[in-house]
Each structure stands twice: as C-alpha cells, then as structure tokens.
Amino acid sequence: MIRRDMQEVLDIESLSFEYAWSEEEFVKCLRERNCIGMVAEHDDRIAGYMIYEILNTRLHLLNLAVAPSMRRAGVGRQMIGKLVSKLTHRRRRQILLEVRETNLGAQKFFRNLDFKAISLLRDFYEDTTEDAYLMQFKQQEPGGFSPVNRIARLAS
After folding, report:
1. In which band, very low, low, confident or very high, does the pLDDT at 154 lie, cut at 50, 70 and 90?
2. DSSP assignment of the chain, as one string?
3. Order of strands across the sheet that contains 45-54
4. By C-alpha distance, which of 88, 144, 136 is closest to 114?
5. Main-chain dihedrals φ then ψ at residue 137, nearest 5 degrees
6. Please, what are the domains in the chain?
7. 61 near 97, Cβ under 8 Å?
8. In Å, how far from its chain's centre is CA 139?
C-alpha cells in the first residue's frame, strides 16, 4: 500500500464498514515500524487491502476489506493466504484478529479459512459498546500434526 492507493482504500473502507477508519487512522497505523499495508489489484484498480502488525510471536490483522464489486471472487481468500504464508514454524505461528459480534459475514469468512473464535472481548470498540470475537489461526505443526485438547473437545 502506497500513498497514491489511499483514496481507493478509503472508498472501499467507507463502503465496507459502518464505523470506517479515517485517512488519519490509516496513516498513523502505517507509520508504525511493525505495521504493513498490502493491496490486491485487479485491472489496475484496488480490489482489496489489509493492514497487519508483525509482533514477536504472531501477526495481528487490523483491517481487511474487499471492494464490493470484487467480493466472492477469491480476493479476500488470496490476501489471507498471503498472510498465512508469512507464518513460520519457529517464530510467528499464529494470526489474531478481532471481529465485531454483529459482523456475521466476516465471522463466517474467517471460520471458512480455519480461524477459531477463542475469546469474547466485552465493550471492545471505542465507537460503540459492541463486543468482539478474538479469532485465531494457528499454523499446524510440521508434518501436519496439531496437538488437540481432548477435554475442551469433549466439553463442546
């Protein structure tokens, strides 16, 4: 994501969210050393974007949106695939994100990509008193083995 992308990103943001980020919020976030902004392009237009933080042990997805005309075309899936490809077995093994409790479309999208809701964050958003789900994607162990908590599985 570069400065000239900002107007298209802001347009997609305002079409995608009731409580959209402002240009100042985007710029402030992207000035942070550990924040990365990426765009997906189609026919020389911005089809979608994401902003994420690189932390010591994980990646934190802060914002992701796809242009309304490009939804259900695999753009979001490709962007998340790019993010997953940045995980490593040694250091960063998970992606975390928050999703509004009322954003059922995003919850379903991330569940279909193997994210799990691991926590409910009460009164999470500053603009409303809405709760959020903390969702997590964990990279599997080498060789496809992933430890399973049998007690949690049996309890559900």
Report:
1. low
2. --GGGHHHHHHHHHHH-TTPPPHHHHHHHHHSTTEEEEEEEETTEEEEEEEEEE-SSEEEEEEEEE-GGGTTTTHHHHHHHHHHTT--SSS--EEEEEEETT-HHHHHHHHHTT-EEEEEETT--SSSS--EEEEEEEPPPGGG-----HHHHHH-
3. 35-42, 45-54, 58-66, 94-100, 132-138, 116-121
4. 136
5. -115, 125
6. 3-141 (3.40.630.30)
7. yes
8. 15
pLDDT above 70 (res 153): no
Q: Which tens digit of pLDDT belongs to each residue from 39-75?
A: 999 999 999 999 999 999 999 999 999 999 999 999 9
User: Alpha-carbon distance 76 to 87, whole Å?
Assistant: 17
Place of tokens 């926590």: 119
Q: How far is 94 from 90, CA to CA, in rounded Å?
A: 11
* Residue type at position 48: G
Give 113: exposed, middle or buried? Use CB within 10 Å, 0-12, 13-18, 19+: middle
| Locus of tokens 């309890």 | 155
